């Protein structure tokens, strides 16, 4: 039986929060960019799916006791090289949710000792599994605020679905 130290429901709820954040946005609105250097809502979602992939790997590295440094990734090149803005927000969110569900099934099997396992991140800091998962939840919250800022900046003449 799991001795989870994180709120697994809060972890899973990040998917619903993202779905609610984009509710009613048209494809044009999802792909709109304030400038070439800034991300669209779709690109933010793609970044979060990428981040979820990386965190899923980090989780397994921590649990395995690997001495390898936890990987970082270059978010802007990942988003641009994947041509993320050509993707479907719904497809991206399906992948995001699948990773959440898969990881949450793992979380439910972990012991308190597992949650305390640690490794060294790309900044040279020691992080526990608990900290890594909580940081992911917090990271999604940061990008939910970014999505709200993008929505506020959308041209007013654009209509939603």
Automatic annotation (TrEMBL):
It comes from the Bacteria. SUPFAM superfamilies: DinB/YfiT-like putative metalloenzymes (SSF109854). InterPro entries: DinB-like, DinB/YfiT-like. Residues 13-147 form the DinB-like domain. It holds the Pfam family DinB_2. This is DinB-like domain-containing protein. It comes from Paenibacillus tyrfis.
